[in-house]
Amino acid sequence: MTALPGRPVSVEPSARVPDSLPVPGRFTHLHPDDGACLMEAAALLAAGRFTDSPVGTHPALAGLARVVNDSVGDDARHALWPLAADLADARPAGRDYPPLLVGGVVDAARRVRPASRRLARRGRACRRRAQRLAQAPAGGRAGRIADLLWWRGPGRRHLERALGVLCAAPEADQLLSRLLRQAVAQARDHAGGRTPAREVRCNR
Q: pTM score > 0.85 for this model?
């Protein structure tokens, strides 16, 4: 996912960074000694592998977390650091989860830009897909492929465009931080448990 410009100033208070994790930083890193983004920290907590796409995190949620990490200021990034533990094990199994998550981000962007017809259309599209999938059977291999194609195509585009609106808002750090905290909490509480890692071959 394309990173959005970082913000040098944060309005969120700092949180204590766990001693076992690298120093928080923007973007991806080659080695923990160089620092880590939020998803790299989650991967270290989950399995010890240094990657920004841990298998225990849903791809849509990981995509949101990467952009938020790279877009907020240093203080907000430190304050979000404790979320790494929850992100390490946050992979709801429901097929309706990705459009629900993306739709929630689009709705947040619409509160910033309420007159946007494009955001309104994207929000409706996400809600329709979520409603359809909530009533659909598991879908098997064909369903997993369809869901992956949606995420790599319109789902990711909807998410990125909505995050672009939020990043341009005057209180972007607060909006993005609150959005990610809510998304993590909803993922942990989402009914249906987790999808086994073997069923999804690509986490991005």
A: no
